[in-house]
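Action item from last meeting closed. Structure (308 res):
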């Protein structure tokens, strides 16, 4: 017997409804408009490709984005599984309603954007038709101090790019050379499963789950950002050069540039292991960031020219 997923809208407070509606509108924007840093980087990379085929690919990308904005429709048919990475102060007034706010925001955005229905209940194998299911959307929350504001990344994790990520725990004898080997093995085997040029997120930590979370958070960093750790920054550049030399090029048709960048987030590890994980974002890297104060005034640092 299959137990169908049951979803009922909750009775939210007026401020919670206001926040929900702002987020639903922003999710729709994220689905169709690339963040400023990605648009800038794609423009730079397109100038480095001289082959007519690569130029055609980039011109098609630009046309795709223009039509998405003109028609107010998502720029890719796979609008992903919605993921929220949240950092908020303990005194943010809507903290107790936050999970329901985010769930309802996805539900409303699914109808308004519209978003493809991407929530399939595992084992029962049916699509809820709501873009909501057990564990979808994903909400990762960090309580940071006793402030009263909140900031969050809104991310559309697509089935061809981020969701096929990989993680492994290495023995310490493999060293950081083992980290590089793991990353390059993954990029040469599934690198064009996504749509290059890619943003590559690498997580280094003490276990598969901590490394995997680091690699996902690395995709939230801006594409031209550099790790504050000097050695990690060196590895970022080495991996960027190495993956570019694979020659994937835009959409995997070959070319000089295969990645928009490589971002590493590293945290401490147990001395007996090195956890490593990789996630990729495709050229249509649909992530946004929104910052609210306690009165729900908001800023959009990755979409500076957007008003909701």
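Sequence:
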């Amino acid at each position: 017997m299959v137990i169908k997923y049951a979803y009922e809208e909750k009775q939210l407070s007026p401020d919670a409804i206001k926040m929900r509606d702002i987020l639903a509108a922003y999710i729709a924007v994220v689905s169709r408009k690339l963040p400023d840093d990605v648009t800038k980087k794609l423009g730079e990379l397109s100038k480095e490709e001289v082959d007519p085929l690569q130029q055609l690919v980039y011109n098609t990308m630009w046309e795709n984005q223009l039509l998405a904005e003109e028609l107010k429709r998502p720029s890719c048919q796979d609008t992903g599984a919605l993921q929220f990475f949240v950092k908020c102060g303990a005194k943010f007034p809507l903290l107790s309603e936050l999970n329901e706010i985010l769930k309802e925001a996805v539900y409303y955005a699914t109808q308004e954007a519209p978003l493809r229905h991407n929530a399939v209940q595992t084992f029962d194998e049916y699509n809820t038709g709501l873009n909501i299911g057990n564990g979808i959307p994903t909400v990762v929350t960090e309580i940071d101090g006793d402030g009263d504001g909140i900031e969050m990344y809104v991310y559309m994790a697509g089935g061809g790019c981020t969701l096929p990520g990989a993680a492994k725990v290495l023995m310490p004898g493999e060293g950081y050379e083992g980290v590089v080997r793991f990353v390059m093995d993954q990029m040469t085997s599934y690198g064009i499963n996504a749509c290059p040029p890619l943003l590559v997120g690498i997580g280094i930590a003490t276990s598969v789950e901590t490394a995997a979370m680091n690699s996902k958070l690395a995709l939230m960093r801006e594409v031209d950002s550099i790790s504050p750790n000097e050695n990690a920054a060196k590895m970022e550049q080495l991996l960027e050069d190495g993956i570019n030399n694979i020659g994937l090029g835009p959409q995997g048709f070959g070319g000089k540039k295969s990645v928009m960048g490589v971002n590493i987030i590293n945290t401490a590890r147990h001395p007996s292991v090195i956890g490593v994980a990789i996630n990729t974002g495709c050229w249509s890297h649909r992530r946004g960031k929104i910052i609210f104060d306690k009165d729900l005034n908001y800023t959009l640092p990755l979409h500076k020219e957007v008003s909701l």
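Note appended to the action item: The mean pLDDT is 95.
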